[in-house]
Amino acid sequence: MSCFSCTQNAQADALPQRERIAGDEHWRVAHAFDSGLPGWLILVPRRHVTALAALTDDEAAALGSWQVRLSRALHETTGCVKTYVAQFAEAEGFEHVHFHVVPRAADLAADLIGPRVFGLLKPPAERRIPVAQVDELSARLASLLGGGERFVQ
Questions:
Q1: Residue 82: inside a domain, yes or no?
Q2: Are 141 and 77 in contact (CB under 8 A)?
Q3: CA 94 to CA 32: how far, in whole Å?
Q4: How many domains does the chain fold into?
Q5: How many other CB atoms are there within 10 angstroms of residue 121's CB atom?
Q6: pTM of the full predicted structure?
Q7: Cα separation of 72 and 104, whole Å?
Q8: What residues contact 26, with CB distance under 8 A and at least 6 apart?
Q9: 152 found inside a domain
Q10: pLDDT class for 31, splitting at 50, 70, 90?
Q11: In this structure, is residue 8 part of a structural domain?
Q12: DSSP per-residue letters across the chain
């Protein structure tokens, strides 16, 4: 079975900025693809891990810092009132632990609040955020988070 996250991590320097917004030796930050919500971020461990309990102490310590940093950056760039953080890693090919860091706007429709926000992930093509908008937001986030032209290793 192929691991999407490991494939992406192996070629991080060659990825578009939306796939390498920021990172360190433990984590990589990417914008979700096929999202109906600008700023839907994915926080991915750099090494293959399939369970939260398998994180090293250093990875776990960095995880908390990244979640707060991403939440602050999303607040600044999207104006969100809070962020949701979720981790499942159950879909075939996506068993690699990853965290969804989702901006929750003040005006989010009531039928999308809480876990129902996942209705905005992989919506019909006409409701997806255009790549140009994702790229512009990713560049702003990278600037806030200290990302540069090369992926921070």
A1: yes
A2: yes
A3: 13
A4: 1
A5: 16
A6: 0.91
A7: 12
A8: 45, 46, 47, 56, 58, 59, 62, 63
A9: no
A10: very high
A11: yes
A12: ---HHHHHHHTGGGS-GGG-SEE-SSEEEEEPSSBSSTT-EEEEESS--SSGGGS-HHHHHHHHHHHHHHHHHHHHHH--SEEEEE----STT--S--EEEEEE-TT--GGGSGGGGGGGBS--GGGSPPHHHHHHHHHHHHHHHT--SSPP-
* CATH of residue 90: 3.30.428.10
pLDDT tens digit sequence for 1-15: 589 999 999 998 899
Reported as a pLDDT band with limits 50, 70 and 90, residue 149 is very low
How much is the pLDDT for 2?
86
Strand order in the sheet with 99-104: 22-23, 27-31, 41-45, 99-104, 82-86
- Please report whether residue 37 resides in a domain: yes
pLDDT at position 117, please? Answer: 97
The one-letter amino acid code at 25 reads E
Query: pLDDT for 61-119, tens place per residue?
Result: 999 999 999 999 999 999 999 999 999 998 888 899 999 999 999 999 999 999 999 99
Q: How far is CA 125 from the centre of its chain?
A: 20
What is the residue range of 18's domain? Answer: 4-145
Q: Considering Cα of 68, then 91, then 151, then 75, what sign does the dihedral take?
A: negative
